[in-house]
């Protein structure tokens, strides 16, 4: 399968992309000391290094499907093990102590079966920590849908949208509570955060989305269409957000979090 990911583009906003991983990790109890922890969808390793810093004696393994991301991760953090693989088929050789997934599981469907399966891969007392964007109903993604729908030559790219032509919030925490609570011990931590990200200009919003949600679309377009789409996206997104008094743009970004310990 073609590698649609680009570590250089993704890393343009690495600090903003890493902040939720910090917040997720901080909720894991300080008394928890895993021997093995897997970072699923590790990207360029920005979350894997957090796990290594938190648990220096643990075996940390970063897993990603993208060779480009893994090359970047391995060159940046040579003391961490990185492997190529598909999260949907993740099956470690033995049960492990921690699964950490920062902004990766939204790329997979059927969470109803996936999340309990991930819990089953853990030892008793092991921790499953998950963070996912919950912003598919917001302008950053709705503008993508609008442009694809209103330009006949681009409508075929609608099939590249992982959640289709969604116009409402995708994830609801009560659903995940019911999904995880039967196999996890109390307390089960779930919360949602809106990050107000300071962007230099409207172009920066496009650059942000280009690193993640737009990857399947732009990878499928030829250069001419990609350039035209980029121009029109910036035009449309500038109608959705306003310039602050300092000429910067605040981009609200919703994310959901969950930390569950296996019974």
Question: Would you give an account of this structure?
Answer:
This is Trans-aconitate methyltransferase. Its EC number is 2.1.1.144. GO terms for molecular function: trans-aconitate 2-methyltransferase activity. Keywords: Methyltransferase, Transferase. With 263 residues, the protein is α/β, with parallel strands linked by helices. It folds into two domains: 172 residues, Vaccinia Virus protein VP39 (Rossmann fold, 3-Layer(aba) Sandwich), CATH 3.40.50; 78 residues, DNA polymerase, domain 1 (Orthogonal Bundle). 37% of the residues lie in helices and 24% in strands. Strands 3-2-1-4-5-7-6 form a seven-stranded mixed β-sheet. Helix 4 links the parallel strand 2 and strand 3. Helix 6 crosses helix 10 and helix 8 packs across helix 10. The longest helix has 15 residues. The chain is globular and about 50 Å long.
Quick structural summary:
The chain has 263 residues and is α/β, with parallel strands linked by helices. It contains 10 helices and 7 strands.
Secondary-structure element sequence? HHEHEHEEHEHHEHHHE
Approximately how much beta-strand content do the residues carry? 15-25%
Spatial separation of the terminal alpha carbons: 37 Å
Structural class: alpha/beta
Record field, number of beta strands: 7
Under CATH, the homologous superfamily of the largest domain reads Vaccinia Virus protein VP39
Lateral strand order in the biggest sheet: 3-2-1-4-5-7-6
- Total domain modules: 2
What's the gyration radius in Å? Answer: 19 Å
Helix count, DSSP H or I runs of 4 or more residues: 10
Shape: globular
Compute the average pLDDT: 93
Largest sheet: 7 strands, mixed
InterPro entries: Methyltransf_25, SAM-dependent_MTases_sf, Trans_acon_MeTrfase_C
GO molecular function: trans-aconitate 2-methyltransferase activity
Protein name: Trans-aconitate methyltransferase
Domain Methyltransferase: 39-126
